[in-house]
């Protein structure tokens, strides 16, 4: 019996597409929600789609919208984005231990796609993870995110104006939906969120909103780590729809 | 597209991409100090807390509007609602109750 020599590269790529399809499905409502909220924050369709194409970071994109809506300056939003996405540095470092050694340019390419979910799926594989596989997972998830951001924006434009008042709450509902599933799992997460909430409520009295968020976040993250470091969270945050 | 929005998006793209890229391109089995790793893992949850409060309470003159929304979103989410269910459900609840505020 002849053993079929399957060319490894396309095989791994299609395997990646298959594994990535569940992320793509999960990104669909998240991206629609993003586009829909972007429209309520007065971003144009192009601005919305460009943000999804160039940034590809769900939670940070939602946060940027809330700051844009609050009239926060670009520098503060960019710095918030940096702080919020810094965790991907850890994920890339961790994935780097398992990834197939490859040309730096190929790795630099898929590095763009290291979101929470893509990191989780690719790093769950046994043994070495091939670049083609990571590209497969990345590509299908990325297409879903960008496409449905646009869909969400057009859906938002069709909504009647009587919904406008309650729609201002949509963003907060989204943050709550990201937080609550994790709250149920770790007491530490409740402490982290509550500490930052209290600190931020104090800081907004004396400084610009964007900086208040950054300072409250860093103080809570570092302070809680100082008090109870022996309770490690998973290497992947439980924000199921966040990138 | 407004000029400021272009700068904003490009800036966000750079600060998101660079931390994702650096370890994969430049690291050789490098270990991050565990304390720093712990802090960075805490960041997303702390950020969510700060982004919800006090903003959610201040979107309407009546603080009960935000409280009602928080309660509705919490319940939808607690009982397993997906993200879109939580968002649309809370918006519907608030729309129905808006005359009360």
Textual characterization of the structure:
The complex is a heterodimer of chains A (243) and B (101). Chain A is an all-alpha fold. Chain A has a domain of 162 residues. Helix content of chain A is 72%, strand content 0%. The radius of gyration of chain A is 20 Å and the shape is globular. Chain B is mostly helical and 101 residues long. Chain B folds into 2 domains: 30 residues; 67 residues, no CATH class. Chain B is built from 4 helices and no strands. In chain B, helix 3 packs antiparallel against helix 4. The two termini of chain B are 36 Å apart. The relative contact order of chain B is 0.06. Classes of the chains: A mainly alpha (243), B mainly alpha (101). The interface between A and B is large, with 105 and 71 residues.
Summarize the structure.
The complex is a heterodimer of chains A (243) and B (101). Chain A is an all-alpha fold. In chain A, 72% of the residues lie in helices and 0% in strands.
Question: What is the ordering of alpha helices and beta strands of chain A?
Answer: HHHHHHHHHHHH
Query: How many helical elements of chain B?
Result: 4
Uncertain segments of chain B of ≥5 residues (pLDDT<50)? none
- Using only CA atoms, what is the Rg of chain A? 20 Å
| Number of domains as seen in the coordinates of chain B | 2
Question: Helix count of chain A?
Answer: 12
The mean pLDDT of chain B is 88
């Amino acid at each position: 019996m002849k053993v079929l020599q399957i060319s490894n590269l396309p095989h791994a790529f299609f395997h990646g597409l298959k594994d990535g399809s569940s992320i793509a499905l999960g990104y669909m409502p998240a991206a629609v929600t993003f586009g829909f909220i972007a429209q309520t924050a007065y971003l144009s369709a192009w601005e919305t789609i460009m943000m999804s194409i160039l940034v590809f970071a769900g939670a940070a994109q939602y946060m940027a919208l809330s700051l844009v809506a609050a009239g926060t300056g670009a520098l503060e939003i960019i710095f918030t984005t940096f702080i919020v996405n810094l965790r991907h540095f850890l994920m890339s470092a961790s994935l780097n231990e398992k990834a197939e050694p490859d040309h730096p340019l190929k790795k630099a390419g898929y590095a763009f796609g290291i979101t929470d979910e893509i990191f989780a799926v690719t790093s769950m594989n046994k043994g070495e993870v091939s670049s083609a596989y990571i590209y497969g997972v990345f590509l299908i998830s990325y297409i879903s995110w960008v496409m449905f951001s646009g869909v969400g924006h057009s859906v938002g434009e069709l909504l009647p104006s009587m919904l406008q008042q309650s729609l201002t709450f949509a963003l907060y509902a989204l943050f709550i939906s990201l937080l609550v599933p994790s709250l149920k799992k770790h007491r530490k997460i409740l402490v982290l969120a509550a500490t930052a909430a209290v600190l931020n409520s104090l800081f907004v009295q004396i400084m610009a909103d964007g900086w208040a968020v950054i300072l409250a976040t860093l103080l809570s993250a570092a302070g809680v780590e100082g008090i109870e470091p022996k309770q490690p969270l998973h290497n992947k945050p439980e924000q199921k729809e966040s990138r | 597209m407004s000029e400021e929005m272009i700068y904003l998006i490009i800036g966000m793209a750079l600060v998101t991409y660079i931390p994702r890229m650096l370890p994969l391109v430049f690291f050789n089995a490098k270990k991050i100090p565990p304390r720093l790793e712990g802090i960075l893992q805490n960041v997303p949850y702390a950020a969510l807390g700060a982004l919800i409060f006090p903003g959610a309470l201040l979107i309407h003159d009546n603080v009960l509007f935000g409280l009602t929304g928080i309660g509705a979103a919490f319940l939808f989410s607690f009982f397993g609602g997906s993200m879109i269910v939580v968002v649309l459900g809370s918006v519907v609840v608030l729309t129905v109750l808006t005359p009360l505020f």
